[in-house]
């Protein structure tokens, strides 16, 4: 009977190829306008969780979040994405205030109809 080799090293190698290690750089600082804090209070719980995940990604990886639904750059260092599909659609809008010190400010969180594009 032929002895099978452990596939552990091969699995580890495959994992490293598929998911390369992320180099950790200085994180971004994410702030919010006062009106955003009030807007967040009105959001449904599931949208609040999605917003928290989005802000964590922005803090770690920067303002360009192409992996989020309907992400787009709005020009002048402004960005937006949809937090929740369906009706109503919830969106977040943020702006890069200073690239050198890595400062981002969230300017709007709420329904698509009222979004300040």
Feature tags:
117 residues; single chain; globular; 3 helices; alpha+beta; YaeB-like fold; five-stranded mixed β-sheet
CATH topology: YaeB-like fold
Proportion in helices: 25-40%
Q: Give the second-level CATH assignment, the architecture.
A: 2-Layer Sandwich
Main pleated sheet: 5 strands, mixed
Number of helices, counting only DSSP H or I runs of 4 residues or more? 3
Radius of gyration: 19 Å
Give the distance, in angstroms, between the N- and C-terminal Cα atoms: 68 Å
Uncertain segments? 9-21
Approximately what portion of the residues adopt beta-strand conformation? 25-35%
CATH domain class: Alpha Beta
Structural class: alpha+beta
Sketch the topology as an H/E string, one letter per element. Answer: HEHHEEEE
Number of domains: 1
CATH fourth-tier homologous superfamily: RelE-like
**Quantity of strands, as a count:** 5
The average pLDDT score comes to 83
| Sheet with most strands: strand arrangement | 1-5-4-3-2
The dominant shape is globular
Report on this model:
The protein has 117 residues and is α+β, with helices and mostly antiparallel strands. It has a single domain (27-114), classed as YaeB-like fold, CATH 3.30.2310. Helices cover 31% and strands 28% of the residues. It has a five-stranded mixed beta sheet with strand order 1-5-4-3-2. The longest helix is centred in the middle third of the chain and has 17 residues, at 45-61. The protein is globular, with a radius of gyration of 19 Å.
What secondary-structure arrangement, pairings included, does this model have?
Blueprint: H1 8-18, E1 29-32, H2 34-41, H3 45-61, E2 72-75, E3 78-84, E4 90-98, E5 103-111
Parallel strand pairs: 1-5
Antiparallel strand pairs: 2-3, 3-4, 4-5
